[in-house]
Amino acid sequence: MRTQKCYLYTRVSTSMQVDGFSLDAQRDKLRKYAAYQDMAIAGEYSDEGKSGKSVEGRPEFLRMLRDIEDEKDRVSFVLVFKLSRFGRNAADVLTSLQKMQDFGVNLICVEDGIDSSKDSGKLMISVLSAVAEIERENILVQTMESRKQKAREGKWNGGFAPYGYKLVDGELSIADDEADVIRLIFDKYIHTTLGVNGIAAWLNQQGYQKKKRQNNTLDAFAASFVKGVLDNPVYCGKLAYGRRKNEKIPGTRNGYHIMKQDSYMLHDGIHEAIVSEEVWNLAQQKRKINGFKRKKTHSLDHEHLLSGIVRCPVCGAGMYGNVNRKRKADGTHYRDYFYYACKHRKTVDGHVCTYKKQWGEDKVNDAVAEVIRKLVQNPKFEAAIRAKIDARIDTGELEQEAENYRKQLRQVIGAKNKLSQQMDSLDIADSHYERKYQDMQERLDRFYDRIDEMERAIAETEARIQNIRQQKISGDNVYQYLLYFDRLYEKFTDAEKKEFLGSFVDRVDIYEDERPDGRFLKRIRFKFPVFYDGDEVRELSWDDETTVETVVLLSQQKPDDR
Predict the structure, then answer these.
(1) What backbone phi and psi angles, to 5 degrees, belong to 215?
(2) Catalytic one of 13, 22, 117, 299
(3) Residues 202/226, Cβ–Cβ less than 8 Å
(4) pTM of the model
(5) CA distance 45 to 61
(6) Kind and range of the H or E element at 7?
(7) Phi then psi for 397, rounded to 5 degrees?
């Protein structure tokens, strides 16, 4: 009779699990069951710290299903400790089970005594999975009701204390070394023309430093921090509940996203306010006027093609696209002037960039496009690109390495199973039983260490193979564009140009000022290798000290000059 093969699947919803449901406890139970039933374990899959509400968040579970569909090991069963470890969403449980059964694989829930290959098994799974889902939903509802009641009572609902407060015995208490900054933010916002960006910059310029908290590592102030302070009613002595809600994404079974709510519960807190309710209300009135995202009304099709890719020549940060809208002579129409400028993003780290020059977007965009155009016009470049696309990726050595690991794994598992059988057949009446059992247990532990080592090696090798293949696919897509760059680029919309440049160009460095010969590009670094002057390179440089080539020369050369 052929030995039946099985997979083991274990899961805990937190990194630490008690009451006998730990990963080790589950594995031990399943391994003993497999040995008792004379089943060969072909693979073990484990999700740690993963909820059972949906299969989407459980990578190992999904990998197991893929291996079943691929008939990788031709297993007959999946063993789980309890049905709740397989899943708590009834629809997901039944869908996954049906997918397994389509390939001749059944589910055994060891602790529940359920076997889906038996007549009553699938019915029991349907009932218990529905009960598990109802139980999960009830726990969620009870938890939310408990949190809602705490909010009604004005008590802090857990989590980090907001800036300006500290937690004392689970209650909010004013942190004197932080509260002054909170008062300053409200005062500046209400009594000056500064917005959230201006207040953040002012605080940094005045030398204020934000105290680092458990959930933050920056000691400078950002606009997002100021905005969060102004919008949080906790500072006027109130506690909000339900400002954000986890809402289902339409058209999905288990997809959710967090949405900000227009209306929410607001209760008097038992904590002390940092600002008065009047001050907070004045800030909210100004937020309603200024705190909305302005819709784009002009140049709707325009995109900042190299935004963030062009680098500031002084601080090295990304230069971002901006617009200067000027009224035409007739006074009724506007014209947009687009430019790249350093947004002085280094301010958030306490350093202010001094580079103020603005570069016209068309000037920079056209120069970069011209460099690419001259590259691809070279017949040698085209030949090299085609060879690159046609080249087969050689992962044979890695695949052989993975197969060797799998072979070693099978041997170790076989030896481990044989040892387990020998342990089970030990005579308890033997005077040396305890010593023999202990010796075998130590050997068994070493087998498990070896199995873990082999499984990690296989996973790492397979990941390297997948990464090589993915890079090949991504590179080929870009190379296909490059072959037809001349014919396609000018027909692209701005959005398409931005997508292409973003997939090919890693960064563009410029000089602080335009050179006497008109040069301003200093260096272009690509995400994929390009072919230039007989070499495969990732970077073209026109720095005086590193190369004699210039943009001018490059743009003047004809394809057959090289």
Answers:
(1) -105, 20
(2) 13
(3) no
(4) 0.38
(5) 7
(6) strand 5-12
(7) -65, -45
The radius of gyration of the chain from alpha carbons, rounded to an integer in Å, stands at 32
Return the structure tokens found at 460. Answer: 């790492």
Query: For the segment 513-548, what is each residue's pLDDT rounded down to a tens digit?
Result: 998 888 899 999 887 677 777 677 778 887 644 433
Q: Does domain 165-290 have CATH number 3.90.180.10?
A: no
Evaluate whether 226 touches 199 at the Cβ level (below 8 Å).
yes
Domain parsing of the chain, residue ranges: 5-137, 165-290, 356-562
146 is catalytic: no
Which residues, including other chains, have CB under 8 Å from residue 156's CB and lie 6 or more apart? 150, 167, 170, 171, 172, 239, 269, 271
Give the separation between CA 548 and CA 551, rounded to whole angstroms: 10
Residue 274 CA neighbour count, 13 Å, CB half: 27
Class of the 5-137 domain? alpha beta
Tell me the C-alpha to C-alpha distance, in Å, between residue 295 and each of 299, 300, 302, 306: 12, 10, 14, 22
Q: What is the 3-state secondary structure (H, E, C) of 234-282?
A: HHHCEEEECCEEEEECCCCCCCEEEEECCCCEEEECCCCCCCCHHHHHH
Distance between CA 349 and CA 70 in Å, rounded? 50
Question: In the chain, which residues have pLDDT < 70?
Answer: 1, 14-21, 50-54, 88, 90-91, 119, 122, 126, 128-147, 151, 158-159, 213-219, 242-264, 291-300, 327-334, 343-352, 379-396, 398, 462-484, 486-487, 528, 534, 543-562
